[in-house]
Design a protein that fits this description.
By secondary structure, the protein is of the alpha/beta class. It is about 35% helix and about 15% strand. Strand 9, helix 11 and strand 10 (about 290-295) form a beta-alpha-beta unit. The N and C termini lie far apart (about 75 Å).
């Protein structure tokens, strides 16, 4: 079956078309017959005997492009002059840049922004390091740190190849949270090196977002940084996923009238996301969870737990889950489950196995781009289905979480992002979907819903204040002009 046309495989064809009646229609027909979907058609140039047009076409895969250009070229009176890969074009020169906030046009501007005036500000920060939050970019800047070892579904592709993803993350921080984020891709896989570098960089940043670092190293890196830094450290692959999963589940429970403590839950995949999802569900009141890795159900009775070879992170999960000591593969332990959460890989659960779940089951198949079970096949068995993809309803996407979480934490200068702050974020996301809107194909708001990040930020900030995690005196947040207090020298 041909792949669905997508913007990621969109192509701009620059076509010279002869001035003859019906020529543009013939070109459009050729594109359609070759499997392309036409978007914009822009006029570039008009000559006496021909026109030049840019035709934007979405296709299912880059492998479709030669067939597309051949089809257009086969139209008598049409000639393809050039093609542009729109996705690559968007990335040319990178996707982010630095801009000045203050003008630099006069001697006075220079003397205040730089030497000699800047020395006064430096002295003030030297005397009171806390003033760095007031007079530098630290107050609103997050480091997006990766070593490129677990990038998207691509795996270990290295720090240079990871940069486009980290730049994209920075774009999302700015667009949805107003946070200035900067990609830092490290050419080392050493836990000690990564921890050391981030510690050394920390004075310039108000928070650290760890991204696409392979498990189990990611757990140790986060734990060590959280223990040694006084700014929030957040591994988005773990906690961003967990927060949005909990938000989707809360709304699923509202819709189905269930209680989280009664749910029988199977989690497939015990990497970074699987561990964090399990922990946040337990924190929220879940009691019956069975986790599966590539060897089957995890329990304290499994051989690798008993002989000590099971990784410590999985051992900690085994100790608090699968209290019935169930064993076997996913298809074995799925029987009687109410909720299946997949954070593993493509096609690990046959759709027919979903028939063994309890009536009206909930399935979150989040592997991307290919889910654990085919959505088309799963729909006949489930009441609620969510995926990690944007081309199906109920997309579980971390962008619903991290911009607002960091916005709220920065606004009150929280020293860390606690479990209660994550739960508050999940509830804020869930509450965006009102009772009148809630339905099986709308349990989670759109990633473009502009209400989400402010709601999450407010909930996170309020929880930080209530729990004492917020910095004293920072309750007004960085959006307030009153935060500056008295100006030195007055």
């Amino acid at each position: 079956m041909a792949a669905t046309p997508s913007a990621q495989y969109s192509l701009t064809l620059r076509v010279e078309i002869a001035h003859r009646p019906g020529m543009l229609g013939r070109v459009a027909s050729a594109i359609g017959e070759a499997g392309g979907t036409i978007g914009a058609v822009d006029l570039v140039q008009v000559e006496r005997d021909h026109t030049i047009r840019d035709i934007t076409v979405e296709t299912g895969d880059a492998s479709d492009w030669p067939r597309l250009t051949e089809a257009v070229g086969a139209v008598s009176g049409a000639r393809v002059l050039d093609t542009t890969d729109r996705t690559f074009s968007l990335h040319v020169g990178g996707k982010i840049e630095i801009r000045n906030k203050s003008p630099l046009k006069t001697r006075d501007d220079l003397s205040m922004a730089y030497t000699p005036g800047v020395a006064r500000v430096c002295r003030a920060i030297h005397e009171d390091p806390d003033k760095a939050f007031q007079y530098t970019i630290k107050r609103n800047t997050v480091a997006v740190v990766s070593d490129g070892t677990a990038v998207l579904g691509l795996g270990d592709i290295g720090p240079r190849a990871a940069m486009p993803v980290m730049e994209g993350k920075a774009m999302l921080f700015k667009e949805f949270g107003g946070v200035d984020a900067f990609p830092i891709c490290l050419d080392t896989r050493s836990v000690d090196d990564i921890v050391g570098v981030v510690r050394a960089l920390a004075p310039a940043f108000g928070g650290v977002n760890l991204e696409d670092i392979s498990a189990p190293r990611c757990f140790e890196i986060e734990d060590r940084l959280k223990a040694s830094l006084d700014i929030p450290v957040f591994h988005d692959d773990q906690h961003g996923t967990a927060v949005v999963v909990l938000a989707a589940l809360l709304n699923s429970l509202r819709l189905t009238g269930r209680v989280i403590g009664d749910l029988r839950i199977v989690v497939v995949g015990l990497g970074a996301a699987g561990v964090a999802v399990t922990r946040i569900l337990l924190e929220a009141g879940a009691r019956h969870i069975v986790c599966c890795d590539s060897h089957g159900a995890v329990s304290v009775d499994r051989a690798d737990y008993l002989d000590g070879s099971m990784p410590s992170v999985k051992r900690s999960v085994a100790a608090v889950t699968n209290l019935e000591r169930r064993s076997g593969a996913v298809v074995d332990v799925i029987e009687g489950a109410d909720l299946l959460i997949g954070v593993s890989g493509a096609d690990v659960v046959p759709a027919s196995a979903l028939a063994r779940m309890n009536p009206e089951p909930i399935v979150f198949a989040l592997a991307n781009p290919d889910p654990e079970v085919s959505p088309e096949k799963a729909l006949q068995y489930v009441r609620i289905l969510a995926t990690g993809r944007s081309d199906y309803p109920n997309q579980i996407n971390n962008v619903l979480c991290f911009p607002g979480v960091f916005r709220g934490a920065l606004d009150v200068r929280a020293g860390q992002i606690t479990e209660s702050m994550k739960t508050a974020a999940a509830r804020a996301i869930a509450e965006i979907v009102g009772d009148a809107e809630l339905r099986e194909d709308y349990i989670i708001p759109s990633v473009f819903n502009r209400e989400v990040a402010p709601a999450v930020a407010a909930a996170v900030a309020a929880e930080a204040r209530a729990s004492g995690t917020a910095e004293a005196g920072a309750e007004l947040g960085f959006g307030s002009t009153e935060e500056f207090g008295a100006i030195p020298g007055r």
